[in-house]
Amino acid sequence: MTAVYTFDVFATLDGFGSYGEDGDWGGFWGKQGPEFLDRRLAQYQQDQRLVLGANTFREFLHFLGSADEAGDPLNARMKNLPTTVVSTTLEGPLDWPDATLVRGDAVDVVAALKEESDVPLRSHGSLTMNRALMAAGLVDLVQLTVFPVITGRTGTDPVFRGAADFDLELVSSQTLDGRIQELVYRPTLHG
After folding, report:
1. Helix 127-135 and helix 54-64: axis angle, to 10°?
2. For the chain, which domains are there?
3. Cis (ω within 30 of 0) for the bond into 82?
4. pLDDT 10s digits, 100-159
């Protein structure tokens, strides 16, 4: 039995994963509320392995802090999950409590992880890596959290830019804090 791999991503209504230097939005585009934060903490409390690409890992180090820094419960939980970092550019050791640096092609690395892991796999962000994993048929679920903003002027990192075409089966949906949509889909390569 293979481990379930979830591509967990945040986006604006117009499909951007972040905002540029001209943006004044703040984290979560300033729309987070107690239901959203509780839901995220509950999801990350479950046994799982985090899988990150090098760029997202660097961003996490910047935003979540090093292994020695204390933070809010969600950040602390994310930092303490077993984590596989797939990279050809990073050098170890990594300043992350339970991180393993794996060199190689993400498709090969994640295919092996899916076969070996006793717990589900979750990747937050890592857009380029996860688009490649989707094209290879390795993503079982796409968890898309849509924040109620349009960042046409300041948006950067279109979540699905350059992705293959996919049909999506809606597995679940939930409204959090009366404004944030969490949509979970099962992707199937179209055609």
Report:
1. 140
2. 5-189 (3.40.430.10)
3. no
4. 999 999 999 999 999 999 999 999 999 999 999 999 999 999 999 999 999 999 999 999
